Amino acid sequence: MGTHFKGTDKEERTLDAFIKLMRASETINNKLNRHLAEANLTASQFGVLEALFHLGSLNQRSLAEKLLKSGGNITMVIDNLEKSDLVVRKRDPKDRRSIQIYLTDKGKKLIKSFFPEHLERIMEIFDSISEKDKTELSRICKQLGLDS
Length: 148
Hints:
By secondary structure, the protein is mainly alpha-helical. 69% of the residues lie in helices and 11% in strands.
């Protein structure tokens, strides 16, 4: 479903592309969020666990930047993960002002077992487009993301 807005060709094409991008994003998020809910995780919580799993310990600011979240939001996400014993906060021995976030053994076990299933679901969603189109989609999304 495109736009019903009547404007210039450029306005209509831009709005139509925007609507399709947002609808595709929401559709993918809805499918993946159902999978996350099975593990009692929010998208933000999964993002933190996944980042820590693949990158190692990070401070809250780095996590917030990676996940495009505000400082207050990432604090709440980490608080909830800590209550579930999935992460732990520790002072950085090199900079006592900084607090690093680490996966606990329970957190490592969860993300290590959950991530492959999550990736498989993503791959199933993207199977409908060619490898060339995936590369092009990545290029376009990066270009849009860098402009903001």
